[in-house]
Amino acid sequence: MKLGTTDLRVYKTRTGIKESLIELLEEKPLSEITVTELSAKAVINRKTFYRHYQTVNDVVFELQKDVIDEMLGDLHQNDIGQRDTAVLLRQISLYIRKNKDVIKRITLHNPDLFFNGHIKNSLMEAILLSVKKYTVSTSEKEQKYITDFMVAGLTALYVEWFRGGCRDDNEMLLTAEKLVVNGISSYLPEESVFILRENPGEETP
Q1: What tens digit of pLDDT does each residue of 112-125 get?
Q2: Which sequence spans correspond to the domains of the chain?
Q3: Could you write out the three-class secondary structure of 151-177?
Q4: 29-86: per-residue pLDDT in tens?
Q5: Are the C-beta atoms of 75 and 126 separated by less than 8 Å?
Q6: How many angstroms separate the Cα of 158 from the Cα of each of 86, 100, 114, 120, 167?
Q7: Nearest to 20 by CA among 45, 3, 39, 1
Q8: In CATH, which superfamily holds the domain spanning 1-54?
């Protein structure tokens, strides 16, 4: 759909504000960025800023929404939907790798920013759909526990990866997939896995 003159002006202003915020996030934490500073960076006045957003956090929310829309668009385009959990995670990993430079700039001083709020909730929804499809004999409560565990572990790995400057991306992404899909059993010797399966929840001497 072709944008009208007014829509194009709004789009350019909002894009400029978001790009300016990303640049400022390279220099300082989100908590230290003010509307005045962000407006100056975007070469607009505060009145113009307030026509589009109420707070700096509103800009962050829209940045997250942009990421989600693009990521979900990739999933739909590749017909991931409720398919294999490993395929879903790999597609998410590919998206993050493709956008690593931008994400690195956003998370330089705020390593947990990328997985806060809206993005984390959308990730929960996508993985829960996949978990439900492949654990049909499991209760809804247990499916939710499985999803919570997967998302918490995945989020922690990505946050540490962001904190470390997004280095060793292949190794990190493969480790994340292996742990989330197969669990810790993929790293334990077979006899240990057998003991855990035969004695769930028991204390070891």
Answers
A1: 777 777 778 877 88
A2: 1-54, 65-198
A3: HHHHHHHHHHHHHCCCCCHHHHHHHHH
A4: 889 999 999 999 999 999 999 999 999 999 988 988 887 788 777 666 655 544 566 6
A5: yes
A6: 16, 11, 9, 12, 11
A7: 39
A8: Homeodomain-like (1.10.10.60)
